[in-house]
């Protein structure tokens, strides 16, 4: 039996797995292209970033289909391992660096490029471009480039969850470990199911059909994501003189309901209780104890009035900003007391279904 003949059952199984993945993306586009992870990562322990990475990768079918396409093109385990190693090196580098230094590129733009990476792999497979060692070297550079871009997308999604300021590097590395575990699990599941489907796939044209599927899914996704990015409104980044960004202030998740809504400058804020109601959709207002009495009175009246329902406030002696408001996902930071900005931030959160 020749090498090409012995390779066919393996390629048939992988092609069947890719077709399954393409069908999954077409059947559930909302989930497949949204990367699935939502919520806030600020309160997660460091080790919880491993399952977070696994979840992200298992729901990131664009990543998995790209890897499956590269493996199918490689045709042999040694070359496939080399290409996947190059891809892992690329996305790990930009994921860790971009997150650690705070680079935040447009997630929508990166998603479009990732979709086009599927088109690239599909076209290369259809035209049968390989056959010379130098061409594999060029393809390796292309895989590295797409890996770097994939890593920027991973970083953007991770930063959108909000990250604590302490222990950031360790959390990003653990998230990356979870990504690699999820990558292996996802491909393994595809191959197992593909092996079952391959019993019914007898045509040697199955790989070309799989490549064509990648091209179609990649083009459709790129167009759809471009339209969505063009029509989406930019998220609010400023309210008056205040700024809004991802929450970076962690709170303990243990505790109960605070004994009262507003804690005076000489009192200690019950952080455990604040963390508890944060999960119930409350807004936490932290202020410097040295606020002027007139300003403090305005804040107290707002928090304790019917308008401030589901708002709790307390002093934060070590806080650099005069006032800061926090919900489960975002944080309002003000260089001076701005009651109008606080009202808008709170009302916007109450209108968000996630606050319910």
TrEMBL record:
The chain crosses the membrane at residues 58-74, 86-106, 112-131, 138-156, 168-197, 209-230. The keyword Membrane applies. Pfam families: HupE_UreJ_2 (PF13795). InterPro entries: Put_HupE_UreJ, TAT_signal. The keyword Transmembrane applies. Keywords: Membrane, Transmembrane, Transmembrane helix. This is Uncharacterized protein. It comes from Streptosporangium longisporum. The lineage of its organism: Bacteria, Bacillati, Actinomycetota, Actinomycetes, Streptosporangiales.
């Amino acid at each position: 039996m020749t090498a090409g003949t012995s390779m066919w059952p393996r390629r048939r199984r992988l092609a069947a797995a890719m077709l399954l993945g393409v069908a999954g993306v077409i059947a559930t586009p909302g989930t497949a292209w949204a990367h699935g992870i939502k919520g806030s990562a600020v309160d997660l322990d460091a080790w919880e970033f491993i399952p977070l990475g696994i979840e992200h990768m298992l729901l990131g079918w664009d990543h998995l289909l790209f890897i499956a396409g590269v493996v199918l093109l490689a045709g042999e385990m040694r070359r496939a391992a080399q290409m996947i190693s190059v891809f892992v090196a690329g996305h790990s580098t930009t994921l860790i660096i971009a997150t650690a230094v705070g680079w935040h590129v447009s997630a929508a733009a990166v998603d479009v490029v990732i979709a086009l990476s599927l088109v690239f792999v599909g076209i290369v497979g259809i035209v049968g471009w390989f056959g010379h060692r130098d061409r594999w070297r060029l393809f390796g550079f292309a895989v590295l480039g797409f890996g770097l871009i994939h890593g920027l997308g991973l970083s953007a999604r991770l930063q959108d969850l909000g990250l604590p300021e302490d222990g950031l590097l360790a959390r990003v590395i653990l998230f990356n470990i979870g990504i690699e575990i999820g990558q292996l699990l996802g491909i393994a599941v595809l191959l197992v199911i593909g092996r079952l489907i391959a019993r019914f796939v007898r045509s040697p044209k199955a790989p070309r059909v799989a490549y064509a599927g990648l091209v179609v899914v990649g083009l459709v996704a790129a167009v759809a994501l471009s339209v969505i990015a063009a029509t989406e409104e930019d998220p609010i980044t400023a309210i008056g003189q205040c700024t809004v960004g991802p929450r970076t202030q962690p709170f303990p998740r243990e505790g109960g309901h605070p004994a009262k809504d507003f804690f005076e400058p000489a009192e200690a804020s019950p952080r455990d209780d604040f963390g508890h109601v944060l999960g119930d959709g409350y807004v936490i207002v932290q202020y410097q104890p040295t606020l002027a009495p007139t300003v403090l009175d305005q804040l107290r009246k707002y928090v304790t009035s019917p308008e401030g329902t589901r708002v709790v406030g307390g002093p934060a002696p070590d806080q650099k900003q005069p006032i800061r408001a926090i919900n489960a996902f975002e944080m309002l930071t003000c260089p001076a007391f701005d009651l109008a900005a606080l009202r808008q931030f709170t009302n916007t959160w109450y209108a968000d279904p996630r606050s319910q």
